[in-house]
Amino acid sequence: MSEYITTYTGLHIVPDNPSPEEICIEDIAHALSMLCRGNGHVKTFWSVGQHCIACAREAEARDLSERIVLACLLHDAGECYLSDVPRPVKKTLPAYSETETRLLSVIYEKFLGSDLTEEESRTVKEIDDALLWYDLANLLDEFQSGKIPEIHIDLSYKVQPFEEVEEEYRDLYYRYSGISKTQPG
CATH 1.10.3210.10: does it fit domain 5-177? Predict the structure, then answer.
């Protein structure tokens, strides 16, 4: 068995020892558009890619920096290589969490120029948690206790073809990264 994963674009990545050359936005956009949130235990298909797009759109609506919009778009990008592990399970897998953290740091460094600061991480987590509240309420009829988080976007949990999600993810990336679509991502 090999120690690497072959990606959609044919690259090989070693998830626990990633190098920036092994990571590209096309692989991230493609894989996240095909991964279902909630480990598939949802009323309708809602991809990790759709969740990340919603987080980025929420950061836009809050008039946050382009860096934070991109960080929100990329915050689950490691799942492109590791899959989406539900939070209750992830808490019991310290090695997985370490690999995910290391991988996400490489992703942020490649696409943002550096890892997130503590303040940036808190902002991204706040948006991620707010959207998670709505994901749970709309996709599982599971309402969390406490105050309903305020969001500034209209959420639609309509099923979209993965190709549309993939394209929207890439388009958002290219809009906020300042990189031309013709350059390799």
Answer: yes
